Amino acid sequence: MDVFTRSWQGDIPSGLNVRAIPSRALSNHSRRIALASEVLRHTQDQNYDAVVGFSKMPGLDYYFAGDSCFAEWAAGKPFWYRFTGRCRNYLALERAVFKPDSQSRILLLVEKDRTTYQRYYATPSERFHLLPPGIERDRLAPHNTEDIRRQVKMELGITEETHMVLMVGSGFRTKGTDRAMRAFAGLPDAIRDKAVMVIIGKDNFRPFGRLARRLGISNQIHFFNGRHDVPRFLFSADLLLHPAYRETAGIVLIESMAAGLPVLATDVCGYSSYIQQAGAGRLVPSPFNQNTLNRTLAEMLTSTRRSNWSANGQKYVLEHDVFSMHARAVDFIEATVPC
């Protein structure tokens, strides 16, 4: 199996032939165009059974729709933005996958994206295939959750009575980390003085460290540049806060449900519907209002319903398929790839 990518980090699993395709282009959209051109050049003359892409580009047999619809996002920008090279390039790559006469099949994460893409590209319905979420089973709360919770809070240097608000995910600007920090800073003194926020993800912390200082909450924010023990924090926190600006899916919402962690998220997250269906927390409706988030965070941290939200999330995960995304994707590709 050949893998085409701009770069690779870590060990290469057995059976994979990784082909790095570096680019000297200066902008992200130019590098994306260069990668798409090189992948197309390498694959169109080869006898591959199928070409599966995780980035939008021409020549794909299957596209894993992990990104939101760029055309919808661009529609909310000023008219002149559509004439920029960035917009034109990204729209061209997206159109190559979703235009009516494309042969690409789309592995869809959330049903509402089907309607969005069809609105802009008139993509035939039969080319979409909806996948379930795909969390790891180590996100299920173990029997010794209370022991884990005590250990994590001891490592953080906080008491067991301290409220712990958790954010998980890279891409802090898109995930709404600024919104989350403002909501935390806006908590009533009696709540905020007995609370901390833990932010885990790979990104540039510096702007958010400066924001924390301006908000006067530096001593109550713990930044971690990625961790291998995220489940421990899911089991230990009192609330997952995920006020994203944009989020195609939001797998951490499902992981939190499995861990028994109540969720407060914006309704733009693709997987926010699971929170609503399960009764596993609360959603901030669109259009977003910071005061609504602030008020809801304070209410949830002091609510007697937290145990209900926790139990509801765990019950939903046990009764529904939230584990088989990857297996279902493979099954679909094997069943539909031309012989």
Automatic annotation (TrEMBL):
The keyword Protein biosynthesis does not apply. Residues 153-315 form the Glycosyl transferase family domain. GO terms for molecular function: glycosyltransferase activity. InterPro entries: Glyco_trans_1. It comes from the Bacteria. The keyword Transferase applies. Keywords: Transferase. This is UDP-glucose--(Heptosyl) LPS alpha 1,3-glucosyltransferase WaaG. It comes from Desulfosarcina ovata subsp. ovata.
